[in-house]
TrEMBL record:
This is ABC transporter ATP-binding protein. Belongs to the ABC transporter superfamily. It comes from the Bacteria. Coiled coil: none annotated. Residues 3-236 form the ABC transporter domain. One of its GO terms (molecular function) is ATP binding. It comes from Naasia aerilata. Keywords: Amino-acid transport, ATP-binding, Nucleotide-binding, Transport. The keyword Nucleotide-binding applies.
């Protein structure tokens, strides 16, 4: 297993938000996290990245215990997190954002070929290559944030609601590119998404969170066939 969470709890100061979350991401697979507003999806990603306190449970990545580890260390082990709200640098150009993502890498040729791959994957970024992040549309900022995270050459790409705030057609474009990124690189993914239809276009399996607990895990096909999931997350 690439990533494994067992009975994870998490708290902001005294406020416990996650009670009992378990999930796993097999090497090379894409896993979704579904759940209503406030269920704890974002907090689960923060627990993995080391930006929220995890008083109990275990988090293992490539066999290392990463619970409570600093975010820089988690990133250096190969987890790149694209936060909700995108986390791209508004005062840098697209080009600079992508290169910042690669700052720990020494393989110059690999960096150049990864940039070429991303510009082919996201033609908007090629058109906007010299523009500041702040001048981009919401969809372009999302593409840039994904690109920047990919440039770190992570083993696991963690995406927090890539569709958030995007028009439906833009969200679809972003997901089509995420699916291609996955197919062509074999990168593993963990994707938080409220829109299950979009998530199911990319993931192999998903876990459902309710008020800080993982309550159901299944393959995409199993979850599509589940009446409760259909009602709650697939619009009937
Ligand atoms: P959303 O789709 O709204 O982002 P989510 O499933 O990602 O929902 P979280 O963002 O993980 O949910 O939030 C879970 C709970 O934790 C919510 O009740 C939220 O109010 C609370 N919470 C989030 N951030 C903080 C914080 N910094 N301090 C205290 N409570 C927080």
């Amino acid at each position: 297993m690439l990533l494994e969470l067992e009975h994870v709890a998490a708290a902001y100061g005294p406020v416990q938000v996650l009670e009992d979350v378990s999930l796993s991401v097999p090497e090379g697979s894409a896993v979704g996290i579904l759940g209503a507003n406030g269920a704890g999806k974002t907090t689960t990603l923060r627990a993995i990245s080391g930006t929220v306190r995890v008083p109990s449970g275990s988090i293992r990545f490539k066999g290392n215990d990463i619970r409570g580890k600093r975010p820089e260390l988690v990133a250096a082990l190969g987890i790149a997190h694209v936060p909700e709200g995108r986390g791209a640098l508004a005062n840098l150009t697209v080009q600079e954002n992508l290169r910042v993502g690669a700052y720990l890498r020494k393989d110059r040729a690999g960096i150049e070929s990864d940039i070429a791959f991303l510009l082919d994957l996201f033609p908007n970024l090629e058109r906007r290559y010299g523009s500041n992040g702040s001048a981009l549309s919401g969809g372009e900022q999302q593409m840039m944030a994904i690109g920047r995270a990919f440039m770190a050459k992570p083993t696991l790409l963690v995406l927090d609601e890539p569709s958030l705030g995007l028009a439906p057609s833009t969200a679809k474009t972003v997901y089509t590119a995420i699916a291609r990124l996955r197919d062509e690189t074999g990168i593993s993914m963990l994707v938080v998404e409220q829109n299950a239809n979009l998530a199911f276009s990319v993931v192999d399996s998903a876990v459902v969170l309710e008020t800080g607990r993982s309550v159901l895990t299944g393959s995409t096909a199993e979850l599509r066939g589940n009446d409760e999931i259909r009602r709650a997350y697939l619009g009937g």
